[in-house]
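Service request form, structural biology core

Requester: graduate student, group of Dr. S.
Request type: structure prediction, single chain
Budget code: on file
Notes: please return the result as structure tokens.

Sequence provided:
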Amino acid sequence: MPAPLLMLAATFLFAVMALCVKLASARYSATEIVMYRGLVGVAVILALARWRRVPLRTPVPLMHLWRGLLGVCALSLWFVAIASLPLATAMTLNYMSALWMALFLLGGALWLGGKSVDPRLLGAVLVGFVGVALVLQPSFQQNQWPGALAGLGSGLLAAMAYMQVTALGRAGEPEVRVVFYFSLASVAAGAVLSQATGTAWRFSNHSLPGALALLGVGVSATLGQVALTAAYGRGKMLVNASLNYMGIAFGAFLGWLVFDERPGWWAALGIGLIVAAGLVATLLRSRSAAPRDLQGETHE
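Core staff response, request fulfilled:
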């Protein structure tokens, strides 16, 4: 399958995952959904690793531990945001990771003396945060600020997890192994946090709609990750980065179709600014980064 079609398939699957998370949130806590998402991921990746004959033993367990901690926290916050915000808004806030990474680059440049600060990158970040203000305005008016803050936090932590994935790639860790240990971390952290917060899972609480929603989360997320990895392996980075933002459009469509969510004009303008700023930031970053370093891993 051509890379653009793989990328579109991946973004659609991640939007389906977000929809399933929202449906599952009516019955399960965010930490439970993280745990079950990880369980499905472990099962699929074990089969994939066996088929590809990829060994799962790692020489850098601490790097995987740090990546897992960041990723699980990002995923949990994103699931909280999905449960309390319109689907398109929650998707948009998670896609803020590109702008957070640009902000990290600017902060590093300033720390080193400011000689290499790109004003275009600074402009993209500022435009992106103007878009955030427009997107979040109705959320704060409707007392949805906890979900809005969770969404912003998920994007920030996803950017940090992304950089850790880059470090694991440089260390020679294959994608299958990275996804496996992240899924394993999701199972462990989800189980512990569910127990600690008093939302521990009980099999007697399952219903057919709830179980199907959980299964949908795990299957769509895992298949989306496989399609995303294949797209970045075959296609051009900038084309993939551009198509990646179709996930917001898919999320908006599914939110309208299932929940009758209709973003206002100001929110739509804010989403457009965030997408434009994210694309500009990706373009500027691509001139100084290797293609492997620009692969997206924020939706695991």
